[in-house]
Known about the structure:
The structure is a single chain. This protein is mostly helical. The chain has 14 helices and 4 strands. The strands form 2 sheets. The protein has a two-stranded antiparallel sheet with strand order 1-2. The protein has a two-stranded antiparallel ribbon with strand order 3-4. The relative contact order is 0.13.
Amino acid sequence: MKKIILIIILLLGAFTIYYVKDLQEKADIEKAKKENKVIEKKIPVTIDEKIDAVIAPYARAIESIIFFNAFEISIDEYKNGKKEEKKTGIPFVLIWLIVGAVFYTIYMGFINITGFGHAIDVVQGKYDDPNHKGEVSHFQALTAALSGTVGVGNIGGVALAIAIGGPGATFWMIVAGFLGMSSKFLECTLGVKYRNINADGSVSGGPMYYLEKGLAKMGSGMGILGKGLAIFFAIACVGGSFGGGNMAQVNQATQQLINVTGGQNSFLYGQGWMFGAVLAVLVALVIIGGIKSIAQVTDKIVPLMVIIYLLGGLIVIIGNYTMIPDAFSKIISGAFTPEGVKGGFIGGLIT
Length: 351
């Protein structure tokens, strides 16, 4: 039965990809006709371009569903010294996340502040007990979580936020991080409360478990809804693991490697799949062993990674200390502009 469901999902996915791609091509042709333009269809040459040609239409279709705009705001842009007004949308998912985070923060009595000391005690091992159920220590759980967030979130997310909204976006990134702590606390608490302890001692948990079990306690109708949401989340996790969990990091690493090995003259130019294949093998060696194997690697690498990250940041700040007052001034003055708000929220979404 599971194989049949998997085959159906793959067939539906393939059909959707080509259907959306066909619709996009037809839309481009109609647009070109209206503008009296001739379409020059680019033929994919490299493996990277061929993969992108297949995946891109599917990604755009999903993006239009998940990131549909709740409303639009006006942003002033300056080009060649001239002020131009530009309309930009605010995705509904951003509003949903912010409202949820604010609610959790208030409902839990500002746990992101009051629980900070307790969190430090937990990470230091104050509550560690070898007889407790679980596969990793508190510290290993922390390093496993940080291993996938420091680069994409703290570096990539902030950079994207500032690129979109300018220095003012930094303020909203801080606010998003502060409120997001409450959301993360609720996620982790529910994950532990409704996890499954398997017969072999391994642990299974996460939103797909607490959605089903937690909502089932509210009645049979909510139980059915919970199961549906759990299935939806599990499927979405597959997409998330490919996108935010793999593609973003590998893409940036590949681009940097290509740049330092000659740019367009690099042996990897247009052949990024080779570097991706090497990374896939290295990652497989770590994750195939499950959370225990992952934690054994992250509890050694992540502390060094964090130290390098903090030292690098301090070196940049100290080397440009004369610009700190001006930076704070620009952050405060740009925080309440439409572009600053949007940049900060989008950056917060990524992190």
